[in-house]
Write a structure and sequence with these properties.
The chain has 599 residues and is an alpha+beta fold. The model is unreliable at 1-9 and 540-599 (pLDDT under 50).
Length: 599
């Protein structure tokens, strides 16, 4: 038997090896298959394996999206498919629901049949036991479990094409070569703020030690949702940032949810921990750090939204900040009044340019009260406590600095497209990776001035990463810093300002090497505090020990009844006993040696 197994395993990638491996299965055999919802289902109808029908019926809907689930071999071997290392299965689990609550109904008599690679199929062992009412095999203790909060409301298909949806799918594809089948994804679908409030209030009950995800050696939470200060169902929320409208949720409820989940022990691994994510998306850092000279934030003030502030008074406050900045840097304060700027909202990509006091009053009215949207005057129902006022920064181009694990990963030179034909060709921004091409195209060929700007931006990036570490005690997994670059009149030098900080999930379209680094860093961050087997959920540890004991009993019967003492001695010699496993498991494992599946 052992020689046959070794021969099959050694030749598993050859047609004969695959055929012999498939021959181990026959019609009706109970098995477990590694189900991947993102790859097995159509984009507009993706099914979760839910623990109970109510989990797929009532909101927020939640279930297993990726992991081992019960099935059975559907038919005898098909030589054409067996040669490719595939077997046909029927799913045995009765409770599959989509994000909208539609069940894959087994009552109708329809059998859900699928083809699986042999590497994703394991024979079921009746003596090994089951967890969660039969959904999860007791022998399965994943290296990583992710609890992912995703958009489940209208326009979900469009949301899947957004950068966050693409990020999640690509990250899961990155995990497979690293972890094999030793991971799970438990999905929670969110439709509006009420779903988040419900889950937040019961997070300590839902995600306690008995939740299947807690048996993993590392468990993390991810949030593929966008905070907004607008009323979720308002016209303004859908039109202000149309590319993000599908997954926009009430910011207060989102951060309440994130904090509740973090409180029960699940760290946030996408995009960032709740406090840091809120700081970035609220844009509070813009006016809070405007008087810190070495961070080079343009003069910025916060206007209380309903405060009785005239345009002249707010411009006067902005000029005071500008004079203070000059004083702190040992420079002469500019004499000219500020006549041009931009107003912004936190938790939104919307901003309005203004010129003069009259233009500022109009911009404030449009941003905080009412604006023309699609040819109609529409109210702006949002609960932002302030409107952000910033001086306009003249720029020849923008420099985007991508950082991964505290190091600069890639520089991109960008210029906003103003003409419609340019937008059709390049989108909102035209991007270049070549420094010399950017200097030639946008800085009158002054390569020295652009090199000076790059040097300044690298130094600024170091300062900003230090600022990030003061809030995270470590460098963020990935973040992008956007800087403005203006060539001075004398040439060979540049003025640089910090424009924005982009959280993890920034657009990486066309940047294959950068994307690989970011996905890898995200996965590694999830695995940085892996537990040993005995440190995982007590339920999982008990089941693992019982399974191990049952396997030993079967082995003793086959060997004619070896004594328990001999077994324990052999375990100690080989380093395979429970105590040896706990002692041998390090706190952190390299990504290449995480599990038997990966090996």
């Amino acid at each position: 038997w052992l020689k046959q197994f070794c021969w099959i395993w050694g030749n598993r990638d050859t047609p004969s090896g695959l055929a012999m491996a498939a021959a181990e299965f026959s019609k009706g055999d109970d098995v477990f298959v590694f189900y991947r919802m993102h790859r097995r289902c159509q984009p507009n109808r993706r099914y979760l394996a839910v623990l109970d029908p109510s989990h797929g019926t009532c909101r927020p809907r939640t279930g297993l999206a990726e992991g081992w689930i019960p099935a059975c071999i559907a038919e005898d071997l098909d030589p054409s498919r067996t040669a490719a290392g595939e077997v046909c299965i029927n799913y045995r689990w009765p409770h599959f629901f989509s994000e909208s609550g539609r069940a894959r109904d087994p009552v109708s008599g329809e059998v859900w049949t699928d083809w699986y690679q042999l590497s994703d199929v394991r024979k079921a062992d009746p003596s090994s036991g089951l967890l969660c009412g039969g959904l999860v095999p007791a022998w399965s203790q994943p290296d990583l479990a992710i609890v992912a909060f995703c958009w489940g409301g209208p326009n979900q298909e469009a949301d899947l094409q957004m950068k966050d949806g693409c990020f999640f799918a690509s990250m899961l594809d990155t995990m497979v070569p690293v972890l094999g089948n030793s991971y799970e994804v438990w999905m929670v679908y969110i439709e509006d703020h009420s779903d988040m409030v419900k889950f937040a209030d019961a997070a300590h009950l839902i995600l306690g030690a008995n939740h299947p995800a807690r048996r993993a050696r590392a468990t993390s939470a991810m949030y593929f949702l966008r905070p907004t200060a607008f009323d979720e169902k308002s016209v303004a929320a859908g039109k202000v940032c149309e590319d993000q409208a599908a997954s926009q949720v009430d910011q207060k409820s989102l951060f309440r949810l994130m904090k509740a989940v973090e409180r029960v022990g699940l760290p946030t691994r996408f995009p960032h921990s709740s406090g840091f994510y809120e700081e970035i998306t609220s844009k509070r850092w813009m006016y809070q750090l405007s008087t810190v000279p070495h961070l080079r934030v343009p003069p910025t003030v916060a206007i209380p939204r309903m405060g009785a502030h005239t345009a002249h008074r707010t411009i006067s406050a902005l000029e005071k900040v500008r004079r203070l900045q000059a004083s702190l840097q040992g420079q002469t304060a500019p004499q000219a009044d500020i006549s041009k700027g931009v107003v912004k909202l936190g938790f939104s990509c919307e901003e309005k340019m203004w010129e003069g006091a009259g233009g500022l009053e109009s911009a404030l009215q449009q941003l905080s009260q009412m604006d023309n949207i699609s040819g109609e005057m529409t109210g702006k129902p949002h609960d932002a406590e302030v409107v952000i006022l910033q001086e306009h920064v003249v720029r020849d181009l923008e420099l985007w600095v991508h950082t991964v694990d505290g190091s600069i990963g890639e520089l991109v030179f960008a210029k906003r497209c103003e003409k419609q034909e340019e937008k059709q060709e390049h989108g909102d921004y035209q991007q270049l990776s070549s420094q010399s091409q950017a200097a030639e195209k946008w800085m009158e060929g002054d390569l020295a001035a652009l090199e000076d700007a790059v040097s300044q931006c690298r130094e600024l990036t170091g300062h900003w990463l230090t600022w990030c570490k003061t809030q995270l005690c470590e460098a963020p997994v990935a973040v992008r810093f956007d800087f403005s670059v203006e060539r001075t009149s004398a040439g060979e030098k540049s003025n640089v300002w910090t424009l924005n900080i982009r959280e993890l999930g920034f657009n990486m379209q066309g940047k294959t090497e950068l994307a690989a680094k970011v996905f890898s860093a995200t996965v590694n961050s999830c695995l940085c505090n892996m537990k040993t087997v005995s440190e995982a959920s007590p339920t999982a540890a008990t089941d693992a020990q019982e399974t191990s004991g049952a396997q030993k009993q079967r082995w003793r019967k086959k060997q004619g009844g070896r004594g328990e003492g001999a077994d324990e001695a052999q375990d100690a010699t080989n380093g395979t006993g429970p105590d040896a496993a706990s002692a041998a498991a390090p706190d952190t494992l390299p990504a290449t040696a995480l599990s038997a599946d990966a090996a």
